[in-house]
Amino acid sequence: MEALTAREKRVLDLIMTSYIGSAEPVGSRRLSALVNSKWSSATIRNVMADLEEQGFLYKPHVVAGRVPTGKAFRYYVNALVPRAPGKRELHALEGLAAHRYSHVEEIMGDASRMLANLCKYTGIVVEPKINFMLFKEVEFVKLSKNTILVVFVTSAGMVHTRLVNTEEDLPQELLSGMKGYMNEKCEGLPFYGLRKQIFADMAKDREAFHELMGKVIDVLEGIMHEEGAREVYLEGTSRFIGVPELSDITRLKELFQAFEKKGKLLRLLDRSIDQEGISVIIGAETEVREMRDMSIITSPYGVGQNNQGVLGVIGPLRMNYSKVIPIVNYTAQAVTDLLRIM
Question: How is residue 2 annotated by DSSP?
């Protein structure tokens, strides 16, 4: 990205601050007042023209001030100095971290509400990927002669269920034996390792378990690879109503439709799941047409040594990045700590 002069940086910073606060195009007269007439309006207009030529600003109307582009927001975000959340936000986040939860779903829901309330935008938390979570136990519930409910429980308390149909009428003694074998031998294994363990045992002398083991493998494959199987906790989508950039009802409708496309939203958020710390995806960088005027600030969270989930905030391009980024970062740390002690 181009290197800006000190004056260009100052003018761009003033424009960004003014636009983030007002959502209104910024003119030279406004900037002249902000710098206490240190520079003339003509000087400021020349600097703004240079910034526009470099792709940092554009004029939304024939006669108007300038508005920052996605490129300007990227420049602005990259230049931000990391800081801690404000006192009020920190107090609320410490309350979240100090709470003791019985279910993972409660953590996800509270975290998304906390993000929405503190940031005044839409909070989002994506359920952890099961692949790297640790197996705790399994239960086989016989519902009918050829139908079994398989219940997997992770070490963090997440529950995944699947119905399987069997060719034979498997006796309860066999189901109990399989349950005991898996719970004793496989506890603590990551889910991606269960399949390998079961295959290894199928090659040995557990022929009585073969059909059921095959069904369990199918269930594991489905849980780990099913597109959009994870829960997405969205809170505060109504906050977009009244946002100046979305005054067009058609644009607002498009955005809500994007939220409903779970698979597309997951793919977008998963781009940051293997990253360290904060990721900021701005406007067109989302590669989702309906979210071209939105930005997403995310951070991964995890259990153990791996990142399995992602959380963050979705807001307009002009969101208050300096406020939101530390809140998202602290929330991810709190959720990680909460999952580890469950």
Answer: P
Which residues of the chain are in CATH 3.30.450.40 domains? 87-129+230-340
φ and ψ at residue 287, rounded to 5 degrees: 60, 25
Length of the chain: 342
Q: Where in the chain is the domain with CATH 3.30.390.60?
A: 135-225
Q: How is the chain split among helix, strand and coil, in percent rounded to 5?
A: 50, 20, 30
Average pLDDT of the chain is 85
* Segment holding 12, helix H or strand E: helix 6-22
- The Cα–Cα gap between 295 and 20 comes to 13
- Could you read off the pLDDT of 181-214 as tens digits, one per residue? 888 888 888 888 887 777 777 666 555 566 667 7
What's the fold here for domain 87-129+230-340?
Beta-Lactamase (3.30.450)
Domain 6-78 has CATH 1.10.10.10: yes
The residues of the chain that CATH labels 1.10.10.10 are 6-78
User: For position 184, what pLDDT does the model report?
Assistant: 87
- Could you tell me if 108 and 233 are in contact, meaning their C-beta atoms sit under 8 angstroms apart? yes
Residues 6+ apart with CB under 8 A from 341: none
What pLDDT digit, counting tens, does each position of 211-250 carry? 667 777 777 777 776 655 678 899 998 888 888 877 778 8
Q: What is the pTM of this model?
A: 0.82
Q: Are 237 and 120 in contact (CB under 8 A)?
A: no
Rounded Cα–Cα distance for residues 112 and 127 (Å): 11
CA distance 150 to 161: 6
Alpha-carbon distance of 305 to 103, in angstroms, equals 21
Q: Which two tokens stand for residue 323?
A: 């406020």
Closest-CA residue to 150 (of 87, 158, 142): 142
Q: Tokens representing 117? A: 């309330």
At 71-126, the pLDDT tens digits run 999 999 999 988 889 899 999 999 998 888 888 889 999 999 999 999 999 999 99
Top-level class of domain 135-225: alpha beta
